[in-house]
Amino acid sequence: MVVRAVRGAIQVDRDDPAEILGATRELLTEVVRGNEITPADLISIVFTLTPDLKSCFPAVAARDLGFVDVPLLCATEVDVAGALPHVVRLLAHVESDRPRSAVRHIYLRGAARLRPDLAA
């Protein structure tokens, strides 16, 4: 086993706890499914939100999905002029036998514009 990093992002329509948590659950579920990750494989997850999202912590969604023994951290993205708004990102560190080239990074909804090469 080696440590791999899996990236992902999803865009929400507005700063609303239910919307942020629902989108985070959707993103995390897709990352786990797409990379055949089990909770035991997860080392940690860092979540970031664009500065316009302030109503909740996305880590709550991970706890709701049962990731109670995984270290989680939430932070604010750098406030770059012209950056895509309303985006929740994650960086998950996992133990995996997959080669780096087989890791599926997940970009959903409007966040697919961030990395069209990976969103397909």
Automatic annotation (TrEMBL):
Pfam families: CM_1 (PF07736). The keyword Isomerase applies. It comes from the Bacteria. Prephenate binds at residues 7, 89, 107. GO terms for biological process: amino acid biosynthetic process; aromatic amino acid family biosynthetic process; chorismate metabolic process. GO terms for molecular function: chorismate mutase activity. It is an enzyme of class 5 (isomerase). Keywords: Amino-acid biosynthesis, Aromatic amino acid biosynthesis, Isomerase. The keyword Isomerase applies. Its EC number is 5.4.99.5. It catalyses: chorismate = prephenate. This is chorismate mutase.
